[in-house]
Amino acid sequence: MKLLAIETATERCSVALSVDGEVLSRGQQAPRQHAALLLPWVKELLAEAGIRLRDIDALAFSRGPGSFTSLRIGIGVTQGLAWGAEIPVVPVSSLNCAAQVAAQQGVTHALVALDARMAEVFCGRFHVDGSGIMQPGGEERVCAPHIAAAMAGPDLSGVGNGFERYPALQNVTRDLASVYPETLPDATAMIPLALNWLQSNSALPASKAQPVYLRDKVAEKPRAPRP
Amino acid sequence: MKVLGIETSCDETGVAVYDSEHGLLAHALYSQVELHAEYGGVVPELASRDHVRKLLPLIDQCLGESGLTRDAIDGVAYTAGPGLIGALLVGAAAGRSLAMALDIPAIAVHHMEGHLLAPMLEENPPAFPFVALLVSGGHTMLVEVRELGDYTLLGETLDDAAGEAFDKTAKLLGLPYPGGPALARLAERGDAGRFAFPRPMTDRPGLEFSFSGLKTHTRNLWLEHNEDQSARADIAAGFQKAVTETLAIKCRRAMQQTGSGQLIISGGVGANIALREKLTAEGEKHGWNVSYPRLEFCTDNGAMIAFAGCKHLLAGERQDLEISARARWPLDQLVSAPRLA
Q: Of chain B residues 287-326, which have a CB less than 8 A from chain A?
């Protein structure tokens, strides 16, 4: 199985290529650099693995939630690569992905909170299953930090930059088992999630590579036309 | 060479396939006008969201209409600016990536260059060199086009674009968004001679434009006469005549200054019938040839991007793997520095 994964939901940008279990990757903090980094990285990884894009079985993409613009850069790249090379796509949640990164650090129950700007966080709860895969434990949502903080509990680990950027979440640190404020979604953690997804779903056509924004109210309609 | 063109700089998703041997093979457009109408203007985030939904279905549609398989495409051209950065990035990311996937070259196209060359998609295309008047909701400029890539900005607007002045004037007259075409329809019923309007910047030499004063003049007239229903159409007619005559005066100067015999008109306002009639008459009077793109290629479209991209690809130009998009991109940074008038 050959999987390519692209993660662009936050200021971290990353790409991973898994060829029969061997994982090659690139990733770095890259505010406003996603558009410059992604394709050269994909090319490098394919060259290192000695395969062509068309040899890939599925392309996993970060469907969000996250920064709208960087998310769409990753999804635009996914659409282009998948359409051009006729590869199906697999959606992966950025919150689930961050939880999976934390699982690699030993976390079993995660409360993920990623900074959503505008004094809100994208948040969700996840727990690890018997195969080491983080499974969602409820709906993902965009909400005020204090609402996410109310979900804290002694069996949960806090994951994501929401825990360093908002006082309401910093304040619940002592109510949590541990906190990983620097953990962000990364493409390497998308590989097990995508493989898990493919066990019970068929990969999708390129046009289904679409973002999940969670925040849908992005503009105010004028109240009444001026006379 | 068969080139796939992608345009996502504002509120239209445009896709086309242009063949250097057989011309335009297919084009498809999805306009978001209705989406933004409720907001009274383009909402950039909503525009980006719509592009990401519509782009691949349009590419599929276009390819189907052209009768080509994806492997028959020889190059990809995408609009890299100027425009809304989030919207541009959708088309740029997908366009650059699908070129990589197909192992074919890609080229980043300047949106205004697409408009400049759009009349060359028509039968009996204008030949280089020519003078181009680009008039849209975002731009008003006169450009001297000597050959592909050799463009000199002769003059542009100092404030509002002509299309923007149309839209804002329509709004203050209470017309629905987007107001430009509605204003033009209203003007047909009006008496352009009832109210006096200035012809801005025509009392001094130069090829610059200014339309914000005209808009203010119109607002004051409307405040004075808004009880009078016939005044609305008369103001619309007077405003439109002032804009078209001002554009015509500047075109005449540009033609004299450059000695050119070929004028082309492009951009959304180029679809305005009164402007076409006025400039066609000017052309007949002064012996210039005047060319326009078909009405649907006056506004944003993928065909002009495929065409411009094809010309650059044939000239050997190539884009690297960086996905380039620029919100601001002066036309003269693409090309030679402006020549002093």
A: 321-325
- CA–CA–CA angle B21, B23, B26 (5° rounding): 130
Do A2-93+185-208 and A95-180 agree at the fold level? yes
d(CA A82, CA A103): 29
Estimate to the nearest angstrom the gap between the alpha carbon of B91 and the chain centroid. 18
Q: Which residue from B39, B70, B96 is facing A39, i.e. has the nearest CB? A: B96
CB–CB contact B94 A80 (8 Å): yes
Whether residue A71 lies within 8 A of chain B, CB to CB, comes out as no
Find which of A72, A212, A214 to mutate to test the B interface (most B CBs within 10 Å of its CB): A72
**3.30.70.270, 1.50.10.150, 1.10.10.10, 3.30.420.40: CATH of B128-292:** 3.30.420.40
Q: Flag whether residue A40 sits within 8 Å of chain B, measured between CB atoms.
A: yes
Q: Please give the torsion angle defined by the CA atoms of residues B96, B102, B104 and B108, in that order, rounded to the nearest 10 degrees.
A: -10
Summarised one tens digit per residue, pLDDT across range B211-268 is 999 989 999 999 999 888 889 999 999 999 999 999 999 999 999 999 999 999 999 9
Domain ranges across chain A? 2-93+185-208, 95-180
Q: What is the value of ipTM here, to two decimals?
A: 0.96
Best probe of the A interface among B32, B74, B98, B227, by most A CBs < 10 A, is B98
Task: Map out the domains of chain B as residue ranges.
Answer: 2-117+297-336, 128-292
What's the CATH number for B2-117+297-336? 3.30.420.40
| Distance linking the first and last C-alpha atoms of chain B | 38
Q: What top-level class would CATH report for the domain A2-93+185-208?
A: alpha beta
Does B99 sit within 8 Å of A83, measured CB to CB?
Answer: no
Per residue in B293-316, pLDDT (tens digit) is: 999 999 999 999 999 999 999 999
B100·A39 Cβ contact <8 A = yes
Q: Do A79 and B46 touch (CB under 8 A)?
A: no
In this prediction, residue A223 carries a pLDDT of 67
With beta carbons under 8 A apart, name residues in chain A contacting B40: 222
Degrees to nearest 5, angle at CA A98 with A151 and A153: 20
Residue A227 confidence (pLDDT): 47
Contact status, residue B149 vs residue B112, Cβ threshold 8 Å: no
What mean pLDDT comes out for the span B103-124?
95
Q: What distance in Å separates the CA atoms of residue B329 and residue B327, rounded to the nearest whole number?
A: 7
Which among A35, A53, A76 has the least Cβ separation from residue B101? Answer: A53
Query: Domain A95-180 belongs to what architecture?
Result: 2-Layer Sandwich (3.30)
Percent of chain A with pLDDT over 90: 95
pTM: 0.94
